[in-house]
Amino acid sequence: MSGIHGDLFMKTFKYYRARVPLSTFSAVIETDSSNFQDKVTRVTFDGKTHDDRLEILGLNSFDNWRVFNIKEHPGLILIRNPFTALGQRYWIRKCLEEYPRKPNKTNIDIEVMLEDWWKACFEGDKCNKKLLKKLRWTTLGYHHNWDTKEYSEDNRGAFPSDLAQLCDVVATYLGYTDFRAEAAIVNYYHMNSTLSAHTDHSEVNLDAPLFSFSFGQSAIFLIGGKDKTTEPSAVLLQSGDILVMSKEARLCYHAVPKILSAKTSTWNKDVQKIYTKTKPKFKYINEIEHIESMNRNYNDENWFLFDDYVQESRINVNIRQVLNETQSKLC
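Above: the chain's sequence. Below: its structure in token form.
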């Protein structure tokens, strides 16, 4: 469709991309604000009382989660306050120090193959700020082919077990008991970054939800309809938020026109250690080593380089199921 109706998504995108004064963002939905009670619905889940994995994955108890539906977009769910401060630090560090390593793929590969991007940024006496800001994305599990928009078996790596378990906890809590985390795109935004309007439709299984984890600086997230003639809603995403696109929202156009400075650095607030359990419970991970890995971020001397990064950037981890439930690989 041409004309003014065809421009509604882009018109909104340009508005938020260009506007600097915060007063122009009064329509951006903040789920915790009483100003948007007509836009959101608070959701509770009966019977979801506990999961033994919560603490070691850096998650708060379910009682502290605040879950909202966005009324105009069925299937769009926003979870506030699911992560502890130490949990946010753990996943931020994973996204910077571990996920961009080979054999995972990054946007930098087209210029130079770096075995360890984070390490390369800090070789020598000074931080390589140019290289630090070059990283835009890394892919895990099934690697998304940006040219063909397809996945393939010969372009697949191991999916991180702890990240898969994190998704399983969230999916199970929401009732998606059969969800399998098989592919992830980690996006790295700086204060002038944007993400243009698109849909996520490369997966074989389009019924499974898409999970999106935000860390660091805040963002304005736009979501419209299944074409660009629908005027999108603007939603504020903050550090530690989990956005879930399911059902009707799964194939809607969405975008990020603006990165905003976070009101508070929640990853630095009330940071508490996890104490080693005497009887490890989990087969998927060495619990003692995992807790030690998380606790090293309690010490600010071990954390400061990662903190410096997210004070000026946003990290977004998008996880999806590629295959149908009965498939073990692509045909």
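The first helix runs from residue 8 to 18.
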